[in-house]
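Re: [ENG-882] Designed sequences occasionally contain unexpected residues at chain ends

Forwarding the minimal case from QA. Structure tokens:
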């Protein structure tokens, strides 16, 4: 679960409600499948507009603080094997059950959106809600550590058991990374992989060079030995020697050709992985510096880059207004 302040909401909406023109910086996103994303609940206004409308309805005695948490977001899903066992219709029913659990628990009027992404590694639901309890904003109390543990247990009882899912490990300290952290981690992982691949390519290149040198040495020694035997009179010209010598020579030449080709291919791979490694290191460094030194500017840049006109897609579970439609 992630908590968001006022300035964080627009970028989250752009990422959640993306279309196929969305500039996917997240390496998990396959833009060719983005058109298959769909809404379980969708408001006829922006996230911020719906939040402002609900806050106005609360008639709070004091003005909402600038640093108040206005939106809490959940990502709901399972592993790849679970979704492989479901048909497309069954997947929709699963995410509908997940969404209904949150609407029953926190009030449908407080649900900002429920969006299913099928364009990443595994399908998952992004559910965004306003943290309101007893007529006031209270994210800190509504979603403290104990409340989140209870939420996970209740979710498993209502939804997980129905779909034969196991509850997540209780008391686990594992954390989901936010989008920027994930990107940096992914780039770092890929940079490490590129270094290892380059190292392996270098070893293969050295082995190929040794193989080539060996083949050349064997050919040279064979030719020298045969020439010395003929010159010293130990071997007399014999037509029977010609086929064997030709076969040996052909075999050695073929080994040499294979060695040269392997060396060329490995060198090309080495150059490619080296370029990728340097590029990934530079990207990771840039994102890390922006995140540490200018997080506000980074959010603004992402918001500007990700603004695209949303393509509305109707599905059997797409919400209209504040209600459900089937």
């Amino acid at each position: 679960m992630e908590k968001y302040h006022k300035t964080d909401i627009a970028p989250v909406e752009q990422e959640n409600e993306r279309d196929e023109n969305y500039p996917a910086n997240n390496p998990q996103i396959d833009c060719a499948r983005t058109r298959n994303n769909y809404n379980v609940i969708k408001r006829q206004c922006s996230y911020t507009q719906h939040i402002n409308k609900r806050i106005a309805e609360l008639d709070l005695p004091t003005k909402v603080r600038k640093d108040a948490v206005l939106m809490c977001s959940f990502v709901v899903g399972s592993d790849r094997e679970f979704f492989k066992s479901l048909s497309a219709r069954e997947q929709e029913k699963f995410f509908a059950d997940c969404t209904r659990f949150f609407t029953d628990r926190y009030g449908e009027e407080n649900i900002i959106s429920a969006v299913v992404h099928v364009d990443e590694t595994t399908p998952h639901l992004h559910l965004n809600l306003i943290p309101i309890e007893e007529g006031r904003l209270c994210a800190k109390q509504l979603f403290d550590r104990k409340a989140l543990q209870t939420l996970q247990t209740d979710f498993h009882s209502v939804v997980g058991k129905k779909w034969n899912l196991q509850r997540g490990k209780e008391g686990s300290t594992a954390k989901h990374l936010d989008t920027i952290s994930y990107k940096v981690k992914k780039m770092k992982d890929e940079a490490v992989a590129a270094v290892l691949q380059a190292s392996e390519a270098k070893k293969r290149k050295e082995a190929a060079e040794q193989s080539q040198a060996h083949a050349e040495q064997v050919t040279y020694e064979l030719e020298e030995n045969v020439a010395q035997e003929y010159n010293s009179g130990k071997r007399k010209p014999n037509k029977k020697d010609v086929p064997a010598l030709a076969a040996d020579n052909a075999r050695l030449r073929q080994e040499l050709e294979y060695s040269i080709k392997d060396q060329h291919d490995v060198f090309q791979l080495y150059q490619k992985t080296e370029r990728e490694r340097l590029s990934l290191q530079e990207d990771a460094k840039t994102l890390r510096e922006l995140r540490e030194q200018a997080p506000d500017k980074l959010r603004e840049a992402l918001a500007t880059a990700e603004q695209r006109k949303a393509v509305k897609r109707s599905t059997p579970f797409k919400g209209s207004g504040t209600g459900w439609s089937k």
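QA comment: On inspection the terminal residues look reasonable. Confidence is low (pLDDT under 50) at residues 308-326. Proposing we downgrade this to a documentation issue.
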